[in-house]
């Protein structure tokens, strides 16, 4: 990997375009390096993972809304919308499928200086590949690039400390991935990346306080915007430049300012793209920093016994966890039984209480209104708080995979005064966890979440196709769509008409 030093430059400076971060990323995207076998295998795993969580969210209101919007934009041959037949305009198919993937907060993650869900790259690339009849092998190449760029930006540039949403890294990664997949030249990819970044910077209010359904729509919009940016760039249109480094650019006014230098790692020329191997998926439908605490709570049940004995629970954890999903956020909504599902899946005290009581986690039942309103749950929930522990913060930011951790240490004080402590560094499903996810577990997650939603024969057809995606050509990529049972789609809420019909 090469480290690129990225800072603001005045317009009067001699700053060659070849040194712009967007140009350097474009060079990585245009590099025709072969995809390692392990990268290809993980790409397939994540396509399966996305299909799993899309099946689970098929009839949720935001997904139904996005689907109805997409179905108003037919195209031939077009791209597929998850769950239904027919061809639709690629950017709208990406929109609908992106919401389906993101709605339950249940797919892959990468955490470093910034947060990310790199699986958000998959819907836009698949949609464009289907519409243009791209070869499956080129789709894999594109996804390897998209994951690489998003992970590398997440390692090098923190957005949330300036209250910028993490989808600002997604727009450029989708544009870069599309550039690789479509075998575009460096200059075209460069212009697309600049446009995509310029149009996908937004505040983090979508993940603060009372969190709404927009949390699912935000990454889908970034993917849609990136597709449109690539289309314009292919037609010869330019972008603001230098987009990161300009004196009125992203670093100068949205991030750490003209005095700061960021260090962004990117593959050297000829270096394979392996960043997807640094990412990890979720066993539980909840914000990633709650994955290890859920597993810890399940383990603590036997040690505690009667939960009525509990006086207080303090979770010692990282700065990020404490301030984003813990009591350090200052959000009273995180302790409100009437809070939205999106808010509850960003409330570690709620999640820990339910996991401790139930010994399991379910993407629907654990968030049901009657579950959140149970008096004994509310009582336990309000006994739980978080504190930042410098050691957990250090491990969160560690570059050593064996040391990097997203867990917590629980201190449970009983009414008798006895204190029970236990800790867990990584989730059981993490590559270094007790039960790491491999192909078998990804397939198991899909068949579990698709049960009763997708016909078993259709499940098997999809699994057979996706595991040979590299061999698919032309219109064969429609095989990556999964048809949902009509009687299931009939259960989706009725959506009022809008502009698009």
UniProtKB/TrEMBL annotation:
Q: Which pathway does it take part in?
A: Carbohydrate metabolism; tricarboxylic acid cycle; isocitrate from oxaloacetate: step 1/2; Organic acid metabolism; propanoate degradation
Query: What would be one Pfam family of this protein?
Result: MmgE_PrpD_N
Which InterPro entries does UniProt cross-reference here?
A: 2-Methylcitrate_Dehydratase (IPR053420), MmgE/PrpD_sf (IPR036148), MmgE/PrpD_sf_1 (IPR042183), MmgE/PrpD_sf_2 (IPR042188), MmgE_PrpD (IPR005656), MmgE_PrpD_C (IPR045337), MmgE_PrpD_N (IPR045336)
Q: What keywords are assigned to this protein?
A: Lyase, Tricarboxylic acid cycle
Catalysed reactions, as listed in the record: (2S,3S)-2-methylcitrate = 2-methyl-cis-aconitate + H2O; citrate = D-threo-isocitrate
GO biological process assignments: propionate metabolic process; tricarboxylic acid cycle
Query: Superkingdom of the source?
Result: Bacteria
- Documented EC number(s): 4.2.1.3, 4.2.1.79
Which residues are in the MmgE/PrpD N-terminal domain?
A: 20-262
SUPFAM superfamilies on file: 2-methylcitrate dehydratase PrpD
What GO molecular functions are on record for this protein? 2-methylcitrate dehydratase activity; aconitate hydratase activity
Function text: Involved in the catabolism of short chain fatty acids (SCFA) via the tricarboxylic acid (TCA)(acetyl degradation route) and via the 2-methylcitrate cycle I (propionate degradation route). Catalyzes the dehydration of 2-methylcitrate (2-MC) to yield the cis isomer of 2-methyl-aconitate. Could also catalyze the dehydration of citrate and the hydration of cis-aconitate.
Subunit structure comment from the entry: Monomer.
PANTHER family recorded for this chain?
2-METHYLCITRATE DEHYDRATASE, 2-METHYLCITRATE DEHYDRATASE-RELATED
Q: What is this protein called?
A: 2-methylcitrate dehydratase
What's the source species for this entry? Mycobacterium cookii
Lineage runs:
Bacteria, Bacillati, Actinomycetota, Actinomycetes, Mycobacteriales
